[in-house]
Every structure is written in structure tokens, then in C-alpha cells.
Design brief:
By secondary structure, the protein is α+β, with helices and mostly antiparallel strands. The chain is 21% helix and 46% strand. A hairpin with a 2-residue loop joins strand 4 and strand 5 (85-95). The longest helix has 7 residues, at 16-22. It starts with a helix and ends with a strand.
């Protein structure tokens, strides 16, 4: 959970060095927009996102829950609000050979209004 929360911080999102520590080299994402992101694409684009700017809007996370699926593999689920838009989020984190936890997969699904 700590890594997931760090990835929501503008200082981490704007720093390729910090974000690189938290993404697995085999990382993929299906964002709430429906776009598929690779490790390289995410690291290249992340610093330019609105939520990566120090004075920009913040991502608010709630109801985060983790489930250990197997040794070294955790599934996190939670909800976010960003600029009034809600999304349900799901991430898989796996432990690397050095014991560090890295995000392997992430998906965001928009929550319809109403």
C-alpha cells in the first residue's frame, strides 16, 4: 500500500527516478481512459500529467484494500477522485529478487456519475 500511495504523490509522479523504483520492468496499465500503457511509455509521460505538478490537482484515494494472492504477489483495490471524476482501481504488486515491491499491473475503471 505504501508504494501505491507514493505513486499518487506529485513529487514521485514528476520524478522519473522515483517512479522507476516503484514500477516493475514488465509493468503494463489499462488506464481509466482505456489506453494501454507500457513501462517505457508510463515513465516518459508521467511527469507531464496534471497530477504530477506540485501546484496541480491531487488524486484522492480511499477504501484501499490489499490481498496476498501468493508469496510475493499482492492485489490492491481502491477508489480515486481526480478533478471530480471517480475511478475504481486495481493493482498487482510483486516482490523482486531484492525484496522490493514494484507495481506489475494497474487498471483504472471510470465510475459512472449518478
Amino acid at each position: 500500500m505504501a508504494g501505491e500511495l507514493r505513486l499518487l504523490e506529485p513529487a514521485v509522479r514528476s520524478s522519473g527516478t522515483e517512479a522507476r523504483k516503484l514500477f516493475d520492468p514488465e509493468f503494463t496499465e489499462v488506464g481509466s481512459s482505456g489506453r494501454r500503457w507500457t513501462y517505457e511509455e508510463m515513465l516518459a509521460e508521467l511527469p507531464g500529467f496534471d497530477d504530477a505538478q506540485p501546484d496541480g490537482p491531487r488524486i484522492e484515494a480511499s477504501a484501499m484494500r490489499g490481498v496476498l494472492l501468493a508469496p510475493g504477489l499482492v492485489h490492491l483495490t481502491y477508489e480515486t477522485v481526480f478533478e471530480g471524476r471517480r475511478a475504481r482501481r486495481s493493482s498487482l504488486w510483486r516482490q523482486d529478487e531484492n525484496g522490493a515491491w514494484r507495481m506489475y499491473y494497474h487498471q483504472g475503471t471510470p465510475v459512472p456519475e449518478g
